[in-house]
Each structure stands twice: as C-alpha cells, then as structure tokens.
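Please fill in the sequence for the structure shown.

STRUCTURE ENCODING:
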C-alpha cells in the first residue's frame, strides 16, 4: 500500500543506480529506498537494463555489440533500448517502488529534457559519451515527495533532438553531480572494485582512482562505474560500489556497516 507523498525540499539527496544485472534479484533495495524516504532522505533512482536489452535484441534477430564496456547502438538497437529502458523496465520499477510503499514517478532523460547528450565516439553509434543535466524535473518531483526513477535516454539538441542511449553509470554520475547529491551508490552484482589479486578495494582515494582508471586492472562494465565515481568524488560526493543482491546493502553502505568500495 502506498503512502501519500509529503512535500519536501530538505534532506540529503542520495542517488541510487540500480544495475541491469540486479534487476529482479531477490534483494531489499526497494524497501530500503522507501525506508530512506520516510527518514527525510530524498532518494533518486537511475536504472540500467543491459541484459533485458540484449535479450530483446536477440528475440528480434539484432546482434549486440560492445566496446570498452559500452553498448554499440545503431538505429535498430536504439529503438529497442528506448522501448525497454523508458518503457518496460522503468514502469516495472515504478510498480515495485509503489509496492514498497513509496510514491514514484518514472521518466527518461529525454523528458524535460533532463539530459542533453553529445556523441563523443562515433564508433559507438547513437550513444551520448557526455551529458549536460538540467536537474529541475527531478528536483520538482523530489519537492512533491516523489521518488524519481530515471531511464538513461538523452536527446541530442544539435541533431533535431534525436534520442541517444546513455550508459546508466555515466548518467548516474552526471545526475548526482547536477543534483548536488550527498551520496552516489551503485548497486551491482559484484562486491566492489577488485585489485589485481581479486581482492575488494575497500577505499579508493580520488588520486588513486585516477591512476586505477588507466591501469588496466579495472575492466569491462566496471570502467564506466569507476569513471562516474571519480566524477562524483571531484564534486565532493561520496560514491559507493556495493553488491546490491545482498539484503540491506543500501543502508549498510550508508551507515558504514556493509562491505564494498568507497570512492572519495
């Protein structure tokens, strides 16, 4: 049963990025986010959906391609990504948030527009490598007491507002910075950033993170997560990468009792 939203412009903003690999996992994330909202904290969710996009592309006979941990997005892939991210997954998450007891509103970065993107690597196709964020749509929802749930789709104002796919980690970092969030949390399916021996790095200072990003130790999908954490850390935001499939992962990283990687 949902509760009526309470208007608020106070309380810290915590941006939670829910990875596509954890969607549908038996965790406590939605209940934890709803509980945060009740304490006066203002949670914002940015979600991915890579596995679901790949699954739908396979059903439609479209081959998925990746480069440097990022999806290569041609015109056909973009249609699938938009439908899955801004449609199926976004509304499913809204329903799950409502079921957890918090009012939620789903939107994409194209709404507002919240995110204006630029193609920085033509080899990736319709992918925004950089985004400019206008946080006013999200701030308006927060002021109304809602939990915003954002799908990572942007518009390209230089190309008749053509839609662009955005890596959800990149979107999460940029939106966190634009909102002046206190904390950025990546809920993923691994325990954090691993060193060359496979051990979790519990804390990565900003200067060490800059070197780690180009060391070759961090690979695949962890690359954009680390880059987003570094962008947040430069803005004074504490960033966490934790295993979101573990019960209580979100409150645990906020109160310092759970494991994971902190970038600050």
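FILLED IN BY: designer on duty
SEQUENCE:
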């Amino acid at each position: 049963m949902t509760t009526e939203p309470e208007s608020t412009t106070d309380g810290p903003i915590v941006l939670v990025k829910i990875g596509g690999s954890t969607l549908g996992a038996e965790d406590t994330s939605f209940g934890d986010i709803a509980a945060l909202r009740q304490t006066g904290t203002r949670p914002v969710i940015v979600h991915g959906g890579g596995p679901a996009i790949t699954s739908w592309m396979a059903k439609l006979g479209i081959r998925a391609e990746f480069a440097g941990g990022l999806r290569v997005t041609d015109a056909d892939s973009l249609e699938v990504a938009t439908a899955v991210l801004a449609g199926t997954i976004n509304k499913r998450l809204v329903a799950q948030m409502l079921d957890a007891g918090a009012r939620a509103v789903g939107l994409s970065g194209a709404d507002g527009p919240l995110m204006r993107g630029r193609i920085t690597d033509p080899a990736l196709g319709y992918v925004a490598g950089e985004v400019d964020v206008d946080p006013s749509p999200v701030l308006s929802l927060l002021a109304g007491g809602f939990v915003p749930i954002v799908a990572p789709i942007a518009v390209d104002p230089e190309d008749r507002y053509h839609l662009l796919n955005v890596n959800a980690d990149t979107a999460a970092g940029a939106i966190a910075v634009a909102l002046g969030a206190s904390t950025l949390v990546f809920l993923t399916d691994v325990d954090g950033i691993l060193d060359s021996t496979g051990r979790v790095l519990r804390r990565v200072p900003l200067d060490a993170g800059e070197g780690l990003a180009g060391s070759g130790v961090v690979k695949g999908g962890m690359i954009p997560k680390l880059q987003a954490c570094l962008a947040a850390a430069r803005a004074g935001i504490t960033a966490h990468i934790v295993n979101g499939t573990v019960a209580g992962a979100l409150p645990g990283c906020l109160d310092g009792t759970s494991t994971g990687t902190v970038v600050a």
